Amino acid sequence: MASFDLTELPKSDPTPLLRYRDGIYAADFLACAIVHLDLFSWLAESPASLEEICEHCGIHERPADVLMTLACANGLVEREGDRFSATELCREHLGRNSPWALGSYYASLEDRPVVKEVLTVMRTGKPGNWESEMAEADWHEAMESAEFARMFTAAMDCRGVFLGQKLAGELDLSGRARLLDIGGGSGIYACCLVAANEGLNATVFEKTPVDKIAESAISERELNHRIEVVEGDMFRDAYPDDHDVHLLSNVLHDWDLPEVEALLRKSYNSLPSGGLVVAHEAFLNEDKSGPRAVAEYSTVLVAITRGRCYGVAEIRAVMEGVGFADVQQFETGGDRSAIMATRP
Predict the structure, then answer these.
(1) pTM of structure
(2) Pair (74, 95) in one structural domain
(3) For 134-171, how does the pLDDT look when each residue is reduced to its tens digit (9 = 90+)?
(4) Which terminal Cβ of the chain has fewer Cβ within 10 Å, N or C?
């Protein structure tokens, strides 16, 4: 988290490197669907809804949604209304009775530890555990450990330098005075936005022990005169007032839809008239058929958090449902985008 000019941009694009890390679970989800669930052979016989898929395979809706989005993005199924049907690619190469079936090629992965872990996530609907000293805890519990929180926050911070700069280059905050970075981690997104907007100050709202990590990182970047850190739980505690922009960067995808709605409703109730909310992360397209990189990233999230990647239409519906208006999406970088809306 060393200090340097956050307005200085790299000459190269690290998106291909981000994709390797973001999509690390995708092959294991596909293998699980083939060797443990035999999902695609069944779909090759008749289309089915997500509810029917869950019932037939004995899996939960949240990971099933992620799996079917991955299948759509890879051209294995097509979504027509609320039903999924197998494509020719799926029928020819994943249908068990096809002469070109590849099921046996994947069979050797049946006992691969991560594939078995994915099966547990599919069956229970609960996130898996971290392969670390926090192996008995999911991500949310692990973040209460100071050592794990430092490791994870540092990982998100180094990624956030590039992603934060890309967000700052696309988000117009002209005339805005104070930004509240909700669940802001190290504060890297607040730092990038403040660095790019001379008249902007910010507050990072974070739980212990991450709040102390953020204070140190912001100080190292010599922006503590413009960014303060307030300790608090984003679900339970009141947000600091007098902020005309709320930022939720890489936050919503850690939570299921009821929690997403709760966060956006709380933001709406805390913002002044004309206030702006910005959700920034990897979003799927309107019909959740891709992009492939985001569908692959969603497999990581569903495996280790309580959330997943959401489609633009899903977030728009929640924002409008709690009262926001003028919902707009724009691309930023690294397969990320932002959805912003205003409080009327």
Answers:
(1) 0.94
(2) yes
(3) 444 566 777 777 787 788 888 899 999 999 999 999 99
(4) C
